[in-house]
Amino acid sequence: MLADLIDHTLLKPEATAADVQALIDEAEELGTYSVCVSPSMLPLTLPDDLKLAVVAGFPSGKHHSSIKAAEAALAVAQGADEVDMVIDVGAAVAGEYEAVGADIAAVRAAVPDAVLKVIIESAALSDEAIVAVCEAAVAEGADFVKTSTGFHPAGGASVHAVELMAKTVAGRAGVKASGGIRDRATADAMVAAGATRLGVSGSRAVLAGETSTGY
């Protein structure tokens, strides 16, 4: 069931506590795997069968590793089950893959028991960089590699990127497609390409076979 793969997402900067509660209620109704929110919205009360994902270093990734690690640790202390961290995309573009790995390692060490997803901003990277960053993420113990924040001007998930990421991690980590999944056909294409989780803001429309205006 597609809903079982969805992180029902609300990361708009103008989101209010009421908006997040509506997100939680909708996620419960739709049967999504989790909700994904900004860290300032915690703590939250969720149904027992709904996971809580929180972003760190979002959306630019241009935070010191110690800040990302502290943000992730606080989120987990406040109830987060999963952390979606953003790498330093510029470091990846420059081929500084050891620095990318060290950034991931800092967050992994801060939240050893949480599910860690590493957002690589695939639309901004070459195929070579996508492969190298995915290898770094796996080496540092990430549970997922994730295509996109959904906020980068280069774009969101693509079938090509998901296929490449899935081939690279080869079952050693999950693959989350996020950014621009606004209809069922796109969601299904991402799953067929190898995505094992989807980040979707317009989940109701996607699951109903309609087109979402979400990100």
Could you characterize what this model shows?
With about 220 residues, the protein is an alpha/beta fold. The protein has one domain: TIM Barrel. Helices cover about 40% and strands about 15% of the residues. The protein has helices spanning about 15-30, 65-75, 90-95, 95-110, 125-140, 160-170, 185-195, 205; strands spanning about 5-10, 35, 50-55, 80-85, 115-120, 145, 175-180, 195-200. Helix 2 runs parallel beside helix 4, helix 4 packs parallel to helix 5 (about 125-140) and helix 5 (about 125-140) crosses helix 6. The radius of gyration is 16 Å and the shape is globular. The two termini are about 20 Å apart. The mean pLDDT is about 95. Catalyzes a reversible aldol reaction between acetaldehyde and D-glyceraldehyde 3-phosphate to generate 2-deoxy-D-ribose 5-phosphate. Its EC number is 4.1.2.4. Pathway: Carbohydrate degradation; 2-deoxy-D-ribose 1-phosphate degradation; D-glyceraldehyde 3-phosphate and acetaldehyde from 2-deoxy-alpha-D-ribose 1-phosphate: step 2/2. This is Deoxyribose-phosphate aldolase.
